[in-house]
């Protein structure tokens, strides 16, 4: 730099040659101007935090190093854990004493920053929230409350859940009861076609459940007229005569096909005839 060039403060224009200065955004300032323009005010003492001081900040608030203290016990918080409460900074001991919850198991304070569990207004240290049955920490796994205890899902199923009599696994939701035995809905099936029976009409034979269709096909009497099953379970009306059965709509004269329901009829070997056709013979 030649003797004719000037090196001045960007703000007050005083020469900075041989003086202490501060650069900001590639621009030089004397220390006085820099402090007036850019330094933050301390939250503790309200004085500017000068160039020769450390500026400690938390959430856009600033402190002198010596002012960064617990609002209750005044101990320094520099390089120490702390907690914030309603714009106040507190050491962990003061915060825990005044605001932290107590562990429902060990009754000790749950310190700020430590891992904890909360449920219905109660708090636990993570290592104190245990399954009532296996006594292992539940952590972030699912759990089920029962009476005054808390259970991990496997222990709850072993101790309290019904077991499906078909697959032998726990029934955790829903389920159906048949002959005083529990079943998963998806396990309660027709013994014939394996169709799900939950929510459907069904019947049983020898303690086995059947859908109406399978039961009719397997066990219902057959109509002499159409040879199809006659299922009283489905509400079908039928006619019975000499150990033979007909659907009501199938009980007709062999020759003229007139319905014989409620009318007199004649028999000719295994056939049935109306009285008119019978006389003609």
Provide a short characterization of the protein structure.
It is found in: Nucleus. The protein is built from five helices and 22 strands. By secondary structure, the protein is an alpha+beta fold.
Protein model, in words:
It is a single chain. The mean pLDDT is 84. This protein has helices at residues 31-38, 92-98, 153-159, 212-219, 275-280, and strands at 21-24, 27-30, 55-58, 61-64, 82-85, 88-91, 116-119, 122-125, 143-146, 149-152, 162-163, 170-171, 176-178, 181-183, 202-205, 208-211, 221-222, 229-230, 238-241, 244-247, 265-268, 271-274. Among the domains are: 165-219, Cysteine Rich Protein (Ribbon); 223-280, Cysteine Rich Protein, CATH 2.10.110. The longest helix has 8 residues, at 31-38. It is elongated and about 145 Å long. The strands form eleven sheets. Strands 1-2 form a two-stranded antiparallel sheet. It has a two-stranded antiparallel ribbon with strand order 3-4. A two-stranded antiparallel ribbon has the order 5-6. A hairpin with a 2-residue loop joins strand 3 and strand 4 (61-64). It has 281 residues and is an alpha+beta fold. It contains five helices and 22 strands. GO terms for molecular function: transcription coregulator activity; zinc ion binding. It is found in: Nucleus.
> How do the helices and strands follow one another from N- to C-terminus?
EEHEEEEHEEEEHEEEEEEHEEEEEEH
* Subunit arrangement of the protein: single chain
Q: Please give the number of β-strands.
A: 22
Q: What percentage of the residues does DSSP assign to strands (E)?
A: 25-35%
Question: C-alpha Rg, in Å?
Answer: 46 Å
Spans of at least 5 consecutive residues whose pLDDT stays below 50 are none
At the fourth CATH level, what is the homologous superfamily of the domain at 223-280? Cysteine Rich Protein
